[in-house]
Structures are given as C-alpha cells and as structure tokens.
C-alpha cells in the first residue's frame, strides 16, 4: 500500500484540489492523509523535507507533486 | 464516470508524473486518456482552452490541475 499526504493551507486553490482531485485516488492502492497547516503548523518542516515548495501538494511515496499554486511554503510559514 | 486527460510533452517531469501518479487514479471512477503533444500537437489548442498553462497537467472534468512544472505551453508550441 502506498502512502499519500495532501498538504494544504485552506486556500481556495487548496480547497478545490482537495474537493475535486483527492476523491479520484484509488483507496485500495493508496492511503491518503490530509494535513492542514492551519491546524498542524508543526508539520511544515516535514513537508519541506519532502521537497514541498507550495501548497496544495501531494507527497506520494516520498515524492512531492505540487498541484496548481495556492501559496508558497514561505507564505504559509509567515501566516 | 468522470473524464481525465493527462497532457504531457515527454519531459522528465511529465514522465515522472505519468509513471508515479496516474496509476493511483481510481479507474472505476475516472476514464484517463494520455495525450503526448509530441504525437498530438493538434490537441494543444484543446488543452489551452481548458486552461492548461504548463505540462504535465491533468484536466479533470474540465478543470486543469498542473502537476509540478515541466515546460510551459508556449515552449511546447515552439517545439
């Protein structure tokens, strides 16, 4: 089973991607965790370590896939 | 059934996304078509009309989702 983590920050682009893309992932193949930095700022470092530069982003088995562009990680850090 | 079109241009970022992301889409929910502009340049206009600005991109029920950044549509047009 693969692991995907969807990182977002509540931005409109993030919400769109969560609503319209995540549901198409095959849950028999991948476990999806959703992390909202507004509620879990402590996980920003983990995302950066995986190579996440902006949100929304999906880290799939350790590889970062940025989906459109909502906000940079720097913006997210600065609130 | 939803429809997804994955547009790419053979770039390394495109190949990575095709190989590592597309397989996780739930084929019971979405029909996925892969369009390589190197073989189907005539479909660039269709992608642009859907809002695709760069490749690789997945157009999901008409909405464009750019996945990382391989090349701009302008670069693709110019070969």
Verbal overview:
Chains A, B: This is Thioredoxin family protein. Chains A, B: InterPro entries: Thioredoxin-like_fold (IPR012336), Thioredoxin-like_sf (IPR036249). 2 copies of one chain form a homodimer. With 79 residues, the first copy, chain A, is α+β, with helices and mostly antiparallel strands. Chain A has one domain (2-77): Glutaredoxin. Chain A is built from 3 helices and 4 strands; from the N terminus they run E-H-E-H-E-E-H. Chain A has helices spanning 12-20, 44-49, 73-77, and strands at 2-8, 30-36, 54-60, 63-72. Chain A has a 4-stranded mixed sheet with strand order 2-1-3-4. In chain A, strand 3 and strand 4 form a beta hairpin. The first copy, chain A, is globular, with a radius of gyration of 12 Å. The N and C termini of chain A lie far apart (34 Å). The model of chain A has no long low-confidence stretch (mean pLDDT 96). The A-B interface holds A 2, 4, 16-17, 20-21, 23-27, 29-30, 58, 60-61, 63-69 and B 2, 4, 16-17, 20-21, 23-27, 29-30, 58, 60-61, 63-69.
Question: Secondary-structure blueprint of this entry?
Answer:
Two copies of one chain form a homodimer.
Chain A: E1 2-8, H1 12-20, E2 30-36, H2 44-49, E3 54-60, E4 63-72, H3 73-77
Parallel strand pairs in A: 1-2
Antiparallel strand pairs in A: 1-3, 3-4
């Amino acid at each position: 089973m693969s692991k995907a983590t969807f990182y977002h920050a509540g931005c409109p682009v993030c919400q769109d991607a969560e609503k319209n893309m995540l549901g198409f992932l095959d849950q028999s193949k991948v476990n999806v965790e959703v992390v909202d930095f507004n509620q879990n700022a402590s996980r920003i470092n983990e995302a950066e370590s995986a190579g996440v530069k902006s949100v929304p982003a999906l880290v799939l088995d350790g590889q970062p896939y940025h989906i459109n562009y909502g906000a940079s990680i720097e913006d997210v850090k600065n609130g």
